[in-house]
């Protein structure tokens, strides 16, 4: 029996301004109670421009919701127009930072080296990376999904110490399942998540690997979360579209009450 506490993280992507962010976090805070937070860590990952408002609300009302950003710069400071540093995110009280999301890899040409540099930047500022890996449909059709995701993981973890690795969160997100309504079967997701854990055990130790949270992401909804969470190597979900609806997100956070 693992002691990993489940994590449900809502990636809002480029949705909701800071006023809408406050409204959504207030709805979540109203609906979720201490029993929920004892069972599951609940995070939101709003756009950068919302973070200060979310911080003020969370701190002011002493909410148990945690939050983070969707990206960070590989650099700590300097002449990098448009970039946001880990130091700035830490100052805003961020717990998490999403790194290597497939939309960053695809639309911003982020490669494994940049993802690795961003993971290192996150640790320099005591932020917990939510490191995303996942295969395209083409790779899955060639049945190379586990090899591909393991290679992305290994590249991202270069130079990361065992002590640092203990806190990382890995998110397996098959690209073909993101925003498409095409959810991976629980067995598909388990296959890759188990391979990722085995690779972490080989890179570090089995003890480290057994403590690391691995999430699934890709068209997660309240009606499919239970089957996904029933898998032994899946410790939570990275939720996109469904995290923008408070009622639906709360149901996902209460996955134990959903039927599979
Ligand atoms: O980060 C979240 C994923 O990209 C999943 O998005 P989705 O739930 O809208 O498919």
UniProtKB/TrEMBL annotation:
GO MF, one example: triose-phosphate isomerase activity
Keyword annotations: Cytoplasm, Gluconeogenesis, Glycolysis, Isomerase
Record InterPro entries: Aldolase_TIM, TIM_sf, TrioseP_Isoase_bac/euk, Triosephosphate_isomerase, Triosephosphate_isomerase_AS
Source taxon at top rank: Bacteria
Residues the record marks as active site: 101 (electrophile), 173 (proton acceptor)
Catalytic reaction(s) noted: D-glyceraldehyde 3-phosphate = dihydroxyacetone phosphate
Transmembrane segments: none
Gene3D superfamilies in UniProt: Aldolase class I
Subcellular location: Cytoplasm
Pathways involved: Carbohydrate degradation; glycolysis; D-glyceraldehyde 3-phosphate from glycerone phosphate: step 1/1; Carbohydrate biosynthesis; gluconeogenesis
UniProt EC number: 5.3.1.1
UniProt binding sites for substrate: 11-13, 179, 219, 240-241
A Pfam family of this chain: TIM
Enzyme class (EC, first level): isomerase
Family: Belongs to the triosephosphate isomerase family.
Function: Involved in the gluconeogenesis. Catalyzes stereospecifically the conversion of dihydroxyacetone phosphate (DHAP) to D-glyceraldehyde-3-phosphate (G3P).
Assembly, per entry: Homodimer.
Entry protein name: Triosephosphate isomerase
Lineage: Bacteria, Bacillati, Actinomycetota, Actinomycetes, Streptosporangiales
